[in-house]
UniProtKB/TrEMBL annotation, chains A, B:
Tagged with keyword Ribonucleoprotein: no
Name this protein carries in UniProt: L-fuconate dehydratase
Gene coding for it: ENOSF1
Matches recorded under SMART domains: MR_MLE
Domain Mandelate racemase/muconate lactonizing enzyme C-terminal: 201-297
Enzyme Commission number, as recorded: 4.2.1.68
Catalytic activity: L-fuconate = 2-dehydro-3-deoxy-L-fuconate + H2O
Cited InterPro entries: Enolase-like_C_sf, Enolase-like_N, Enolase_C-like, L-fuconate_dehydratase, Mandel_Rmase/mucon_lact_enz_CS, Mandelate_racemase_C, Mandelate_racemase_N_dom, RHMD-like
The organism's place on the tree of life at top rank: Eukaryota
Organism: Erinaceus europaeus
Amino acid sequence: MARGRVTRLTACDVRFPTSLGAHGSDAMHTDPDYSTAYVTLETDAEDGLKGYGITFTLGKGTEVVVCAVNALAPHVLNKDLGDIVGDFRGFYRQLTSDSQLRWIGPEKGVVHLATAAILNAVWDLWAKQEGKPLWKLLVDMDPRTLSSCIDFRYISDVLTEEEACEILQKNQAGKKEREAQMLTQGYPAYTTSCAWLGYSDDRLKQLCTEALKGGWTRFKVKVGADMQDDVRRCGLIRDMIGPEKTLMMDANQRWDVPEAVEWMARLAEFKPLWIEEPTSPDDILGHAAISRCHNRVIFKQLLQARALQFLQIDSCRLGSVNENLSVLLMAKKFGIPVCPHAGGVGLCELVQHLIIFDFISVSASLENRMCEYVDHLHEHFKYPVLIQKACYLPPKDAGYSTEMKEESVKKYQYPDGDVWRKLLAAQGK
Amino acid sequence: MARGRVTRLTACDVRFPTSLGAHGSDAMHTDPDYSTAYVTLETDAEDGLKGYGITFTLGKGTEVVVCAVNALAPHVLNKDLGDIVGDFRGFYRQLTSDSQLRWIGPEKGVVHLATAAILNAVWDLWAKQEGKPLWKLLVDMDPRTLSSCIDFRYISDVLTEEEACEILQKNQAGKKEREAQMLTQGYPAYTTSCAWLGYSDDRLKQLCTEALKGGWTRFKVKVGADMQDDVRRCGLIRDMIGPEKTLMMDANQRWDVPEAVEWMARLAEFKPLWIEEPTSPDDILGHAAISRCHNRVIFKQLLQARALQFLQIDSCRLGSVNENLSVLLMAKKFGIPVCPHAGGVGLCELVQHLIIFDFISVSASLENRMCEYVDHLHEHFKYPVLIQKACYLPPKDAGYSTEMKEESVKKYQYPDGDVWRKLLAAQGK
């Protein structure tokens, strides 16, 4: 049983200066500092447990998300955790439909990222109180309770609560076996660590060699800034990994629709499994494949329009577990494989819970499915991901793996942490 | 010629406690405090002119938009105004595509509202320096220069720069006559002031009577919260205005798609000209008609999908004049009449410039066209709208009519202005 009254909600601006090494660079984000608006939730329960929530940002603007978390805080403070999770749909609706705040969204951009950070903290705390990793909390929940966490507003034309329950009910069979399978083999992953756009060819080769040695068989490369550059880099990687292994490409919204068609025709010879974010994330009709949408309404239409072949959920862009549940269920209904987006700060830690739950309780399949992996910044987390033979092993610690090490939060706090004070002083700021 | 280097950019949180009188209330926004993130732009030019920009918000969250304006400020400070407007497309792209900040958008929600506020201030300043009201600055600009203000990224599949120029070029003929027509007759308006959702029937009747006396022939009513209530209120208004006058309805995103269909079937007897925002603003495929989109990519698809019969631009939700230009031109290409959204704080003041320009230089037609009008808060503006026989008369003062009275800004500043200090003290805050 969830317990305690929320007595404190704080949000902290934590930034890692990843731009110094061109880590995470792509055609649209040339110098990201991987960052997070880090939420801590405290209650008056005697267990002393705290919930931690993150949302992922790229440096500048994290302070804007922190500001939005504070604006949403009155909806959380002084509430009983039992009342929150007992009517999780109502609580979700309350956060996303504040009659004044929804104007600056709704359910997109800054406020939605802030909503995700808060809800991620709630889920972390709930799972900790139940003594279970989040994926297990979800797997053990009965279909009716799980569905009651979802806000079906704006998606009831393609997925009703009854359909959601049916899907979950049908998959009760075989759950035990799939859970056992996950615990021994883990969930298949692919790596994006080798081929950020700002990496030199030498570095790319070296990282690729290491990844192959480490057992990786699926690779993603960033493209979209310069055609000749892309041809050379994709050729180089395809040569190194050979014709059998899997290659994905990601243009990070760089192109117009005609440009995307032209560019991909040229890169087709390297046999990409998919092209990710060819154009604006808002452009449903212009998409042949897309990812990282900002809410369930956009995903709904991409599915309706048959505009994607792979669906990439994001644990921090969507409204936490609640909204991801609705997207996983819609993907199941439309028969589209889910291959989550990860990387950043903590996205791997969080999304592994969702995709493992998806396999056990929703999709019941690994066909054409894999979860992104990036080998960065895990050292700052108290319960970092565990990769074995290019697979995610299910976390065993209670919670949503969102908690960061206290010293990391302190050191990388912006602008007052040690790391930033030194960096900013060096830049004369 | 634009002149001066930007030396100062400030953003101010100004809120009007409109919720006390249920002004502006609708099915989703039950208690809005009409507010604005108010931007002031100063340069070192000797003319001493300042640019003022607003974006419209509903109270809570205005501080988040102010925070985002500050995050964008480094892109504006120390720039020459001549360089900014001399490469306006480039400047627009820079603001909307900051490699770190775009993550918390892109081009939607908080950052896009902040972008609009800043760009509105730039346009106001430019027009003031040219000594022209904004609509006239636009009307006098040659097609090539006008097009160079537009970022065609993500819309080039339906509108190219060449096409934009052609549309503008073709309309050079007859411009003088249309300008003269505007100056004498003004642009037709409709009123939303009579029928906010929170108004009593008596109040509604009284306001409707007054509006009829004032010469209004087109009325909009808020619907969507309660069916019986809607039937009664719509019936009451239709009775008062008679069968010939025009009635529009607005559900403010309240419904799911099936709900919208059911609800509108019931309200059809009152012969609405349109139903506005029946469902989520992101739901292109679910729409038969929609409004107030957050960027040009959404509008592009609504036009492509033939999902709207009337297009309602917003001067502060879209990325200022620049992005509105692209939407006006796309609407022209698809033959869809533009009927702007207005009201709020200052939206009437701003959007009149755009729609008057549209008539003179783009649409060249008044068929099925009218601009929303709400009779609120104009007293806080230095150059308030002028309505004559239910028409907007073209503003004659230089600028974008964005400038507010200094004393209003001071008095309504949140939380330190006189009005708020008293109100918050009364609420024990």
